[in-house]
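Quick one:
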Amino acid sequence: MRFYYKKIEYKIKNGKKLHNGLFSIFVNSIAIFMLKEERQQLILNEVALHNRVLLTDIAESLDVSIDTVRRDVKELDGENKLKKVHGGAVSLGFTSYGARNGTIYALEEKTKIAEKAIRLLKQGGVIFIDGGTTCLELARLIPTNLELTCFTLSLPVAFELLAKPNIDVIFIGGKISRDAQISIGSHAIHQLSEIKVDYSFIGTGYVDSLYGLTEFDWDIVQLKKAVIKASKKTVLLCISEKLNSQHRYKTCDINAINTMITELEPDNNLLNLFRNHDIRLL
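Output:
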């Protein structure tokens, strides 16, 4: 199920309660409505998948008022299931880099992606590692005997790499985003314009074979554009649940990415739409 560009469609059969994924639909002669628990579970799922979501997007997708969503998010924050931020919500795994197990969504899949990405690393290489939970897993799994120079604008990634004695860590500074724990703004973009790395390993909120990489945050898009420009080759790390989704602001066309790594086997049918493009699938 994909948010943001179409309303949720419900299947009704014989006026009975149906279960469709996270949803249970009650039908009577007057209205169709979603239980609060099911609505909140959907919110948690989207926050876990995308790390950050906007209240306006959730309200539009569920066709409920933003006040309803705001109350749900406040309640979930009080239950320590997510973190409420201005205009949206972020996952706990995204805000607490030390809490590896139990709070990072799809950790097994992200670990598999990171293991594939490590195969691209070479002794003495110069790389960039983006922020986000999948990129953090890559930083965790880099062998301690591998000599690298690594640029990053992510505080959690930088702290993780500092534990690797053979990696020179260069932090791209700037204004720190409290939500994403990364450097943002013109200063960070200027520093990126002065480097050229062998590989950049980046994440994305949304990816589609036709629309490319997109985000809901304009500042993040500008950063990712600068990262891609500063890279000889760009590698996208992305769990398959994000495939065929899109949002407001475009980072790049899919062909700007040299390699896309998912937890799937390269011949999986879910990747068929990407085979028409000049992109390596791992």
